[in-house]
Amino acid sequence: MKYVLVTGGVVSGLGKGVTASSIGLILKACGLRVTSIKIDPYLNTDAGTMSPFEHGEVFVLDDGGEVDLDLGNYERFLDIKDISVIDKERRGDYLGKTVQVVPHITDAIQEWIERVAAIPVDGIEGPADVCVIELGGTIGDIESMPFIEALGQFSYRVGAGNFCLVHVSLVPVLNVVGEQKTKPTQHSVRGLRSQGLMPNILACRSTKELEEQVKDKLSQFCHVPFENIITLYDVSNIWHVPLLLKDQKAHEAILKVLDLKGVACEPALGEWTARAKFCDKLHEPVRIAMVGKYTGLSDSYLSVLKALLHASVACRRKLYIDWVPASDLEIATAQENPDAYRSAWSLLKGADGVLVPGGFGDRGVEGKILAAKYARENRKPYLGICLGMQTAVIEFARSVLGMQDANSTEFNAHTRNPCVIFMPEGSKTHMGGTMRLGSRRTYFQVKDCKSAKLYGNRSFVDERHRHRYEVNPEMVSLLEDAGLCFTGKDETGRRMEIVELSHHPYFIGVQFHPEFKSRPGKPSAVFLGLIAAASGQLDAWLKKGTAKPCALSNGIPAIKPHLNGTPTKLVNGPLDGIYYNGNGLHV
């Protein structure tokens, strides 16, 4: 097997994940089988317990692994199903020897890389041709040193022709004189070389294409061939990044280092290129109000944003996101901060559709319930995911059934009308890995419903889950008698997976997380339904079938965003040309 290692330079957050994903995509387009590994040098073994404000969303894999959001980039770009390896192996003792970082820890890291790289992720038996490895963090970090040492030994062990190192680093531009500065890259390469690794390719992140003399300087001081210095400059949307690599012949440089030029073909990226250009030409807007509790950091909902974008492109609409902090919709905010209260309600009322994503804890829950109430009563397209489905059920019980104290036992353990209850197999003492996780099957109970039609009239779908609480099965008959229809359930018939209001233009809640399986060109079914309903296209999509013009993914076995219409360049990751109202977007 061949290995491509992607590392990051002095300034972190330069889009190593997008670079690694793009490299994987272009190699796959060359006819090679590709897999990926993400190494994060944290002490946390379970990403599910980490704060979304610090690390963004928790991405969930088919096997239930809770992982870093960069794994989502790999799946979306490569259209594969990653796996997780969390449990430490205890395969015996060290024969009485002192356990040391070198060689014991470094040997274990190398063995882990080889073992995981050999596991197929594309549904085909046998190992892949190339494994793309992304090392998180920054060169020079203390916590990265064991991994750097291990990878240095690994590159020597697998030998020349089997290991290619791509180093991503910043080349900042001084605005006063417009000069591109190479010192950050020089220093990071020096640090890399001091730890036993020599870059084969430099991927330089900058606001504009590198000048010839700058590339000459980098080549001379970093000992990298001129033609192996690639510029990752600002583009209009994330889908252009693989095309940047292709246009600068990065694939040829990688294939040459890996001795694969005679095996691989020219990258076939025609469909990808057309999609990237088509996204740039979209003008007619669709505005979605995102009502959440982590709106201070857009990465907290990264997969939701990507899924909305995939659906918007399929519906030929330019996506605008209005961030609505859920707590700002609550009555208490009207008294404490009237301006924030008015702004939140103005955004909610002005949107074409409402999306309430998942979350944990009671902060902002009443605001989410109010958002569901507004969408239901005003026939505004609504999609609730996980907690968003639960709050829609609670709101219905309160408003339609008159159960004023209806609630989830997560928020009120003593409620007389528990619409949402704790799952029997869960744990209330251990937070990590104790939820209902991974791919689970949902069976449609009603054929003539919007969700079933959006999923192509299948009898069941497989979607990924991440939750501890669920709709109380003892209250289902009361809710259904009042008009709420549970159109999807698990194999036992006691777990509610999909809820709909049949007489509403589009009001759907799902217990699972469909955003994790949305792909460019293959949008999530329920996200497609939301965007189609918000842009007046839902009936047409339901009549002609959602398999055309794009295939559906779900359930089937630094860029230029804009703030209030004004372009702004991001250093910390791309956001796919999605437009924002500026509420809580960190740049």
UniProtKB/TrEMBL annotation:
Keywords: ATP-binding, Glutamine amidotransferase, Ligase, Nucleotide-binding, Pyrimidine biosynthesis. The keyword Mitochondrion does not apply. It catalyses: UTP + L-glutamine + ATP + H2O = CTP + L-glutamate + ADP + phosphate + 2 H(+). One of its GO terms (biological process) is 'de novo' CTP biosynthetic process. Gene3D superfamilies: 3.40.50.880, P-loop containing nucleotide triphosphate hydrolases (3.40.50.300). Catalyzes the ATP-dependent amination of UTP to CTP with either L-glutamine or ammonia as the source of nitrogen. Belongs to the CTP synthase family. This is CTP synthase.
